[in-house]
Write a structure and sequence with these properties.
heterodimer; A: mainly alpha; globular; B: Helix Hairpins; about 80% helix; elongated
Chain lengths: ~170, ~100
C-alpha cells in the first residue's frame, strides 16, 4: 500500500518535472526542472529496492551532470528564449510523432507485455539483486567492460578540454 | 507494485523526451531531453531487473550512466565551441553543413 502511494507520488513528480522542462523558456529553469526529475527517478529506484543505483543516480546525474549543465548555461550567459510562437506545420508534425511514439510504447507495455514466465517472488528478487551481488558481478564478470569505461571517461575528459579550448576552430 | 506501471511511466517520460527533441530549438534543451530519454530507459531496465530477479539489468544501468556522463561532458564542450563561433544556440541557425 505504502509502496503504491510512493510510486504515484514520485511518478507524478517526475512527469511534472519533465513537462516543466519541456515548456520552460529559461534554460536555467529547464535544468532545475530536470534536477527534480532526476531526484524523483532516484526515489523510484529506491521503491524498486535498487539502493545502489538510486545513490549513483543522485551522485552522478543530480550531482555531477546537472551541475555541469548549470555551469555551461551560466558561462554562456544566455538570454531567455523568445516565447513560443504560433503553431506551424513543423510543430504539428512533431506533436503527432511524439504522440505516436507514446502510443506505440504504451501499446507494447500495457497490451502486449504479459506476466514474466516463472518470475521470482519479490523477496527472492530483492535478495538476488542485492548490492554485494552487484559488486561481485561488476568486478568479476564485467571487469573488462569496467576498464573500458575508465578509458572512455579519460578520452571524454581530454576531448572535452580540447573542444572547449579557445581557438579550437 | 506491478512492473507494468513502471514501464508505462518509463514510456511517458521517454515520449516527453522525444517531444522535447522535436519541438524545442535550443541546443541545451534538446540535450536535456536526451538525458531524460536515457533516464526513462534506465528506469525500465531497473524495473526489469527487479521483475526477473537478475542483477545484470542494474549493471547495464551503471554502464549507461557512465556513458551518459562522458556524453554530457563532450556534448557540453561542443555546445561551448558552437556558441563561441556562432553566438547562438538555436539549432535552426547552425547549418554549416547545409549545401
Amino acid at each position: 500500500m505504502l509502496e503504491t502511494f510512493l510510486f504515484f507520488v514520485f511518478a507524478v513528480l517526475s512527469v511534472v518535472g519533465a513537462l516543466g522542462m519541456l515548456i520552460s523558456r529559461s534554460p536555467v529553469a529547464a535544468a532545475l526542472w530536470m534536477v527534480q526529475v532526476m531526484l524523483a527517478i532516484a526515489c523510484l529506484y529506491l521503491t524498486l529496492n535498487a539502493a545502489f543505483i538510486g545513490v549513483v543516480q543522485v551522485l552522478v546525474y543530480a550531482g555531477a551532470i546537472m551541475v555541469l549543465f548549470l555551469f555551461v548555461i551560466m558561462l554562456l550567459n544566455l538570454e531567455d528564449m523568445p516565447s513560443v510562437g504560433g503553431i506551424d506545420w513543423r510543430k504539428v508534425v512533431a506533436g503527432v510523432l511524439g504522440v505516436a511514439v507514446l502510443a506505440q510504447l504504451l501499446a507494447l507495455v500495457v497490451v502486449r507485455f504479459g506476466a514474466i514466465p516463472d518470475a521470482p517472488s519479490a523477496e527472492e528478487a530483492v535478495a538476488a539483486t542485492d548490492v554485494p551481488y552487484l559488486g561481485v558481478a561488476l568486478l568479476t564478470e564485467h571487469a573488462f567492460t569496467l576498464q573500458i569505461v575508465g578509458v572512455l571517461l579519460l578520452a571524454a575528459t581530454i576531448g572535452a578540454v580540447v573542444l572547449a579550448k579557445k581557438r579550437f576552430v | 507494485m506491478d512492473l507494468t506501471w513502471y514501464l508505462a511511466l518509463s514510456a511517458v517520460l521517454f515520449s516527453i523526451g522525444v517531444l522535447g527533441v522535436l519541438l524545442r530549438r535550443n541546443a541545451i534543451i534538446v540535450f536535456l531531453s536526451i538525458e531524460l530519454m536515457l533516464n526513462a530507459v534506465n528506469l525500465s531496465l531497473v524495473g526489469f531487473s527487479q521483475g526477473f530477479g537478475d542483477v545484470h539489468g542494474q549493471i547495464l544501468v551503471f554502464f549507461v550512466m557512465s556513458v551518459a556522463a562522458a556524453e554530457a561532458a563532450v556534448g557540453l564542450a561542443i555546445v561551448i565551441a558552437m556558441f563561441r563561433n556562432t553566438l547562438t544556440l538555436n539549432i535552426d541557425e547552425i547549418n554549416l553543413f547545409r549545401g
